[in-house]
Each structure stands twice: as structure tokens, then as C-alpha cells.
Amino acid sequence: MKLFRMFRLFRFLLLPLLLSCVPAAQAEAPRVEKVVYHFGDSSNAMGGLRNIRNHLDASPNAQIVVVALGGGIDFLLEGAADKNGNPYEVVVQELAARHVQFRVCNNTLKARGLGKDKVLPEATIVPSGVAEISRLQALEGYAYIKP
Which end of the chain has fewer beta carbons closer than 10 Å to its terminal beta carbon, N or C? Predict the structure, then answer.
């Protein structure tokens, strides 16, 4: 009988007291879709930019970073236009307004003898394009897409 009373005491008095000391489970933060688009060639840059636009139309809260290196930086240079004469700058500005980040490889700029002033103002310069892609994937959990 004593054991039964002790169990009731524990169940009705002590257990709730113990449980009140345990912090409540925190709600899990909403997961954010994070994607890095790798542009290593500008021959299909307009197609890649359309992919990003479509991506954002389907997932408006996606965090998208474009990393351009090698021949892929050409569409992010002042005055660049596609084969039909359409300037890239207008589309880049539109996507930047939708929070797409553009990053250009400084190693490529150096190798091609291009000054940072030749890069569109919407883009930032990173030391190494491949290192930036690796960092975004490994350390920040970005998915990788190469259009």
C-alpha cells in the first residue's frame, strides 16, 4: 500500500513539477531553400537567368546565389548583351531586386586583365569562384545547379 501511495504522490505531485523544469520543445525554424547557380560559360546565360526567374516564380522565398567564373562572367560585365542584342543588365537588375545575389570570380578578372569597374554594380567580387561555390555547398547547405 505504501508503494501505491508513493506512486500516486510521484505521479500527481512530483512528475508535473519535474516536467515543468524541462524547457518546452522549441518550434523548428522554417527551412529555407538555398541554391547556388554556377555559370562557367555565358553562351547560355539568358537561359540560365530565365531558369532563375522560373525558380523564383515557383519558390518566391528561395535564396539564390549566382557564382560566375571563367567565361561565365561575361554576362555580368558592363554593356554585355546576348546574341540577339538584348542587354543582360536589365534581367540582372530584375533578379537582384528579387534578392538574387551575383558573385564574380576575382581570379578570372585578374587572368583576363579586367578591372572591377567593368563588372555590373549588382555583382560582388569574390576571391575565387570555385572556392565560393564549395563554401556555399559545404558550409551553408546550398544545393548546386549548373544551367
Answer: N
Strand partners for 101: 65
Report if residue 3 sits inside a domain.
Answer: no
Number of domains in the chain: 1
Average pLDDT over residues 130-134: 98
Output b/e per residue, 12-47; b: 16+ Cβ within 10 A.
eeeeeeeeeeeeeeeeeeeeeeebbbbbbbbeebbe
What is the span of the domain harbouring residue 141? 34-145
pLDDT in tens, 7-32: 454 455 555 555 555 555 556 767 89
Residue 81 lies in a domain: yes
